[in-house]
Amino acid sequence: CGPFDLASSDRILSLVDLDLEERAVGLRSLNGVRLTSKLLDLTRRHRTVYRECLRAVRLWASAAGIYSNVQGYMGGVNLALLVAHVLLSAPPNDDGTDPRSSATELLLCFFSTFAHWKWPEPVHLVPVQRSSPHLNADAAAKVGQYVWDPKANPRDGTHRMPILTCVYPAANSAYSVGRPQLRRMTAELAEAERALRKIHRGEKDWSALLRDRVGDFFARHAAFVEVRLSARTPVHLKAWERWIERIVRILAVDLEGAPPGEEEEGAAPTRVEDVRAYPYARILRNPDRAGEGPEAETVRSSSLYVALKFAPGIEEIDLTARARLFLRRARQFEEFELGMDLEILCVQGRREAEKGAKRMSWKASKRAGRGRGARAAGGGKSVGGRGAH
Asked: Is Nucleotide-binding one of the keywords UniProt gives this record (predicted)?
């Protein structure tokens, strides 16, 4: 068969005959090609509308700061599957028109659908295959164990936002989504639905949906954890950012309750309802600054932010254990270069972070020893008075 048939056929999976770890990598690589082929096939009848709608959804997600698969948000594959799901299953509008008639109509259907989706109910484009008739018994046994199945695999049952691929073996493309990320995506989807309905009524223009919303994120929250990175060259900073992005996703989850055994001695354990984390999935550049010493090089710097909301009555949250655990993960970076540094700051608003005001921090690099602890003040009307949403 030709290359296209090979990519879209389950028979190609029988060629993956490696050890367990390499087999998983091989399946992901093959299924990336097969998934693209399948999506093109499923959306062929409405190709232009699908592509225009998907482009708008990606612009919206980026502007809202929730477009990063690495940080536990939605990436390009996730959004492609969600838009395809709406395209294939959208019911007629109230006036009887087809939502596939234009990208704008399909976009409204997208937000109306997923602003109210009952997660963890899975999203799938085709029925999930438990086996394939195109594989022999040996190949079927190897490949079948990777089918997403919460009944057979308890780990699959912990997934918060199952968005299943439409090729065999079906996998959850959004397995890295955590509780903080899902909460923020749900809120952003609901806000986008309201904005788009106003656009439809002529009350707002498209900037209400697609404008950069970084200012809104900082205006909406009062307390933040800032992860500030620095390096001597743009190349080193980019590599450092890629690594830290991966573990900020875990930090956001940890901030809502320290892992077992990680609380500081004598500190009251943090309950899930005490604090809620809202990570922002974009890296923000800081001004370059001069290094120290007569031959000092310019220091490049950037920051990632996680907003915090405290429950009413919460006056103080001890973040020491979470910070130290995060720094231990950061120090596992294998491509570390001299000059790479990392600091975690607890700040009240981004302007204070830029000024260096009220900096309560933990700092660590390869040359630094243990991080130093601090407490993040939280309660009171300015931060915790309205409670967590």
From this structure: yes
Contacts of 258 by beta carbon, 8 Å cutoff, 6+ apart: 269, 270, 321, 322, 325
What is the architecture, at CATH level 2, of domain 3-210? Orthogonal Bundle (1.10)
The CATH 1.10.1410.10 domain(s) of the chain lie at: 3-210
Residues making up the chain, counted from first to last: 389
Nearest CA-CA partner of 315 in 274, 272, 357: 274
Q: What is the pTM of this model?
A: 0.80
Question: Residue 334: how many CB atoms within 10 A of its CB?
Answer: 5
φ and ψ at residue 135, rounded to 5 degrees: -110, 145
CA 82-88-93 angle, 5° bins: 100
Number of other CB atoms surrounding residue 105 within 10 Å: 18
Q: pLDDT truncated to tens, each residue of the chain (389 aa)?
A: 444 454 455 555 555 454 444 445 556 667 778 899 899 999 999 999 999 999 999 999 999 999 999 999 999 999 999 999 999 998 888 788 899 999 999 999 999 999 999 999 999 999 988 776 666 566 556 666 778 999 988 999 999 999 999 988 899 999 999 999 999 999 999 999 999 999 999 999 999 999 998 889 999 888 899 999 999 999 999 999 999 999 999 999 988 875 544 444 444 445 556 889 999 999 999 998 876 655 567 889 999 999 998 888 876 777 888 888 999 999 899 888 888 999 998 887 655 544 443 444 455 444 433 333 333 444 332 333 333 33
Residues of the chain within CATH 3.30.70.590 domain(s) are 215-377
User: What's 215-377's CATH class?
Assistant: alpha beta
Task: Give how far the C-alpha of residue 174 lies from the chain's centroid of Cα atoms, to the nearest Å.
Answer: 9
Backbone angles phi, psi at 12, to 5 degrees: -60, -25
